[in-house]
Specification:
Rossmann fold; N-(1-d-carboxylethyl)-l-norvaline Dehydrogenase, domain 2; 305 residues
């Protein structure tokens, strides 16, 4: 069944996600800070280009967003031009931003005052997963609202799971990022060790990827790490933002994240080398000769919003 929907922010992730909604036959109104992106989307997919988040949300039963951080999300939703001002009672706001659990709970309360459901639903799978419609979505909020939104989320997600009340989606994404940080540092150390030991990294990975060391990062990043290519993927700047959220939450709930804290500082060192836009696998550059720069471009060419 075709639904009236809106999508706010058409960046690296948002544009393909909104495109999958339109391709599935949903009527999609779009808004983006850079007007040319919204105009290009409508020219390609049809739908409506809105002048503000509130305008995009008017008449939509489901409003989706994928922006940068907490304050960006507040700017999208609150105030006279924010999406909440244009949403009808009974409609659902689905937030795919990686943000804090605190802002998820805050905005869920604001939405509830207007009779609107708010789902914090960060994603994993990166730009490639968004393009292929194969993202993983972890959602917090009202379970009934999630059940109503799930068919539309399925247009761009291979898996979507309700994790609990407001904030649970963001907390789950924090776990995801903490695990990735540790995996990438371990993979960086292993590959750098193999190089120093005179082994062929490709042959090493081919063998160990069939055993207990296998991971998504090994399967999708080992070859580019060995080649010194980091001009694609998920940027270090974005990962540091995500780790800051997780580390702040850990201070609140008493968790100990020593490896995540260490990797965060290693990413700071990558940024200091000019690698803020390099893929997160660029950790390996810190383990090679400091005089040898990465052998590729300056990093991902676009932002996540």
């Amino acid at each position: 069944m075709s639904e009236r929907a809106a999508f706010l922010c058409l960046g690296t992730m948002g544009a393909p996600m909104a495109g999958h909604l339109a391709s599935a036959g949903h009527a999609v109104a779009v808004w983006n800070r850079t007007v040319s992106r919204a105009a290009a989307f409508v020219a390609h997919h049809g739908g409506r280009h809105a002048a503000s988040p509130a305008d995009a949300a008017r008449g939509a039963r489901f409003v989706f967003a994928c922006t940068g951080a907490d304050d960006d999300l507040r700017a999208l939703t609150l105030g006279d031009e924010g999406a909440f001002a244009g949403m009808e009672r009974g409609s659902v706001f689905v937030d795919h931003t990686t943000a804090s659990a605190e802002v998820a709970r805050e905005l869920a309360a604001h939405a509830a005052e207007r009779g609107v459901a708010f789902l914090d639903a960060p994603v994993s799978g990166g730009a490639d997963g968004a393009r292929r419609g194969a993202l993983t979505v972890m959602a917090g909020g009202d379970s009934d609202a999630f059940a109503r939104a799930e068919p539309l989320i399925g247009c761009y997600a291979a898996r979507a799971v309700w994790m609990g009340p407001s904030g649970a989606g963001q907390l789950t994404k924090m776990v995801n990022q903490v695990c990735i940080a540790g995996l990438l540092q371990g993979l960086s150390e292993g590959l750098a060790f193999a190089e120093r030991a005179g082994l062929d990294p490709a042959r090493v990975v081919d063998v160990i990827s069939k055993g207990a060391a296998q991971s998504w990062q090994m399967d999708h990043r080992a070859a580019s790490m060995s080649a010194g290519r980091f001009d694609f993927g998920f940027a270090v700047d974005w990962m540091r933002k995500d780790l800051a959220i997780a580390l702040a939450e850990a201070r609140r709930n008493g968790s100990r994240l020593p490896v995540a804290a260490l990797v965060d500082q290693l990413y700071a060192a990558v940024q200091a080398r000019g690698g803020g836009r390099w893929d997160t696998s660029s950790l390996i550059t810190l383990l090679r000769d400091a005089a040898s720069p990465p052998r590729a471009g300056s990093g991902p060419p676009d932002d996540p919003v």
